[in-house]
Specification:
Catalyzes a salvage reaction resulting in the formation of AMP, that is energically less costly than de novo synthesis. The protein has 172 residues and is of the alpha/beta class. Helix content is 28%, strand content 35%. A hairpin with a 2-residue loop joins strand 5 and strand 6.
Length: 172
């Protein structure tokens, strides 16, 4: 990873609420060379394993997952917040600091045994990723890895995904 990629991610203090330091990826997206590098690094996390489909988590994860899928010649599957997918879905809930959220996946998105790489922009507490993994397991996916551009290691999200290989490009 280049120092330029890491330094392009800007901290936004007190967003979306006081006490949070938001990792803003939009400078990476705006720079074609850095975006290309980020996608290449995420693709490299497959270790050469053939991927059938790349799953992206709503919403910034879609940006990276769709580009990775295209680069790998794989299909792209969105995991969305409840009520955003138009077909029959499976759903999984996860805890937030205050309350609960639900993500969904189309019931026919993945066939049992398909090799899946899950991609997101950021791994924080791991709740959303763990819910997405639950959905993939419901469909019999062969989840070969979870790859993220940024991991906030101090939030221990990796612990909720301990049964799976987690690859992060940048860790804070």
């Amino acid at each position: 990873m280049s120092a330029a990629l890491r330094s392009a991610i800007r901290d936004v203090v007190d967003f979306p609420k006081p006490g949070i330091i938001f990792k803003d990826i939009t400078p990476v997206l705006a720079d074609g060379k850095l975006f290309h590098e980020a996608i290449s690094l995420l693709c490299d996390t497959t270790g050469g394993v053939r991927i059938d489909k790349v799953v992206g988590i709503d919403a910034r994860g879609f940006i990276f997952a769709a580009a990775v899928a295209d680069r790998l010649g794989a299909g792209f599957i969105p995991v969305r917040k409840k009520g955003k997918l138009p077909w029959k879905t499976h759903e999984a809930s996860y805890s937030l600091e205050y309350g609960e959220n639900v993500v969904e996946l189309h019931q026919d998105a993945i066939r049992p045994g398909e090799t899946i790489l899950m991609v997101d922009d950021l791994l924080a507490t791991g709740g959303t990723a763990a819910a997405a993994v639950e959905l993939l397991e419901t469909l019999g996916a062969d989840l070969v890895g979870i790859s993220v551009l940024i991991e906030l290691g101090f939030l221990n999200g990796r612990e909720k995904l301990a049964r799976h290989t987690v690859n992060s490009i940048i860790t804070y």
